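Quick question, first post here. What does this chain look like in 3D?
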Amino acid sequence: MKYPRTESQLARSTARFTDTPAPASKLPPAALRSKKKFLRFFPGGFADETYYDWERGYKFTAHQQWQEQLSREQLAALIRSKDFAEIAARAVRIESRTNLLFSFEKMALRDALRDPQGARAFAIGLFEFLYGESQLSERFANWIEVVAALPRKQTRVLTWPLVTVFGFIAQPKTHLFLKPNVTRIAAREYGHDFAYKSKPSFETYAALLRFAAQVKKDLRDLKPKDMIDIQSFLWVQGSDEYEE
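> Answer (accepted):
Ran it through. Tokens below.
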């Protein structure tokens, strides 16, 4: 299937991440430097063609694929038929087409999901995390427990990227991907006190979402569409790929 190059080609009824655009208020010096750095690489902001090619495009395509293959209805139907291995295979396949996880994390996940019990726990836990009715704090804490309990061979499965990647792909208007080192550098460059702890917890994830909310507010004149744009902005600040 061919995917649209830009979101403007999607149905206009798609829910929007941004509020009504408003001029950005005067930013603190560090935040302003971060914004200027992003615009030096991508003068057109989040609408920049190079930005779409380098950062947004492949992440948005993964989200589209998730919607097509692992929507709430599809995931529920696969769980009812106990096709847990298929759920795991689809999730891994969609993620594998991105560069979000390190290779050792991809291998650890594949190893864990080859085990039938691991695939079952992953599938049911994934549904509850994404589509459950309890508060996000409870769903995220339970998801951490699911990932922590997955079978492991050599490399640990419980890492921040693994805990956050599927929420980010599936629901980018809600969830943010956490790459610890890059995000911590980005927060420092932005002048934000990000209360990070290496052990995954909802407390740290909530702090990440607060950081994202501040960045979204500060960049509202650039009209970020969702967490893909926020994550990409932070990546530009903290990754050595964008050293000046």
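The chain has a mean pLDDT of 90.
Residues 63-157 form one domain.
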